[in-house]
Design a protein that fits this description.
Blueprint lengths: L1 H14 L5 H5 L19 E2 L7 H12 L3 H11 L1 E2 L30 H23 L20 E4 L13 E6 L8 H11 L3 E2 L4 E6 L5 H19 L32 H24 L5 H24 L16
Antiparallel strand pairs: 1-2, 3-4, 4-6, 5-6
């Protein structure tokens, strides 16, 4: 057994870049348990002699010297040996077996880091699956009917969420409102509000749009935008200066010309009647040409094109069938290349 597996063990230990000399030289072979041939080696851990009960050791030595000395030697050697602790690599085996005898106790009992990552991902997916199966149906009890915003709620806030993931843009809050929805403002005050909004005013849609992401939370940014709108309305209502002498600056906005459908192309009843008459005349002209044979029949032309190769093949067959006479007389001309 030891001789047959000596080369295999040395090759295995050399691949692991470990010293094999102490394990092979200092470990006696005679103390090992006799068992059938196997390609898997047992690993034994030697115990200290002080751990053995002296009385039991003396009894075993006395039994070894008696008539049944072989059994006493076997029991004494077995007392000083301990098998390898069972791990998930040898779970379910009758005896704890380790394929590499010089492995450490804690080595090889864990999975790689990538495998731990896959297990963590699997746990996360199972967590959300449990939430979807057991907790999300309970949210139906908290559902409220949709109520459209009334006239006294002109402000529209927009938030951004990344479904639980942290992102720098998640704290950003956008605010939009139309100047026409501010019913407590007069036309002069509304024009002043447009001038105060500056580049945030869209002259085409009459909407003021602003955003804030200075603070860490969405609530703080929303509160800041609300205070800013209150300050704008307060300044617009100030009768000290109405800004009527200041023109509205729209250079920040690019007016895009949208193509419109020409009025001349609009389908009217007269155009529909003219198109119907034109189609009737075209159909009558095609029928007249077909009767005179002036219309080309595409199907007939295709059939004629397919029939031509057959006629050529039949002609070549007839030429090959003609009797051949003697060799034609002539002069051979050399060709230079």
């Amino acid at each position: 057994m030891a001789t047959a597996l000596q080369g295999f063990r040395l090759a295995t230990r050399s691949c692991k870049c470990r010293s094999a000399a102490p394990n092979c030289a200092t470990r006696p072979i005679g103390n090992r348990r006799q068992r059938p041939f196997s390609a898997t080696a047992f690993q034994w851990l030697e115990k200290e002699k002080d751990d053995i009960d002296p009385a039991l050791s003396a009894a075993l030595e006395k039994a070894a010297k008696g008539p049944d000395g072989q059994h006493g030697q076997y029991l004494q050697s077995e007392l000083r040996k301990e098998r390898v602790a069972k791990t998930f690599m040898n779970e379910g085996e009758d005896e704890a077996v380790d394929g590499f005898p010089d492995y450490d106790d804690d080595e090889g009992e864990d999975i790689p880091t990538l495998a731990h990552g896959e297990l963590e991902h699997h746990r996360e997916m199972r967590h959300y699956a449990r939430l979807a199966a057991w907790e999300m149906p309970m949210l139906a009890t908290l559902a409220k009917p949709f109520v459209p915003p009334s006239a006294d709620m002109p402000l529209r806030f927009r938030y951004t969420t990344y479904m639980g993931e942290q992102h720098p843009a998640e704290k950003k809050v956008c605010l939009e409102f139309c100047t026409e929805d501010m019913h407590d403002l007069s036309p002069v005050q509304r024009e002043k509000l447009k001038r105060l909004a500056g580049v945030r005013y869209n002259p085409e849609t009459d909407i003021v749009k602003m955003s804030c992401e200075m603070f860490e939370t969405q609530a703080q940014n929303k509160r800041y935008l609300g205070d800013l709108v209150d300050e704008l309305l307060r300044e617009a209502k100030d009768p000290t200066d109405t800004f009527e002498d200041v023109p509205l600056d729209t250079r920040h906005h690019t007016f895009k010309t949208k193509p419109k459908f020409p009025k001349e192309w609009v389908m009217t009843e007269e155009r529909q009647k003219a198109l119907a008459e034109y189609r009737e005349k075209a159909a009558a002209l095609d029928e007249h040409r077909m009767l005179q044979g002036q219309v080309v029949d595409g199907v007939q032309r295709i059939e004629e094109a397919y029939a031509k190769p057959q006629q050529v093949a039949e002609t070549l067959t007839d030429i090959d069938a003609l009797p051949r006479t003697g060799r034609a007389k002539g002069r051979t001309v050399a060709v230079r290349r």
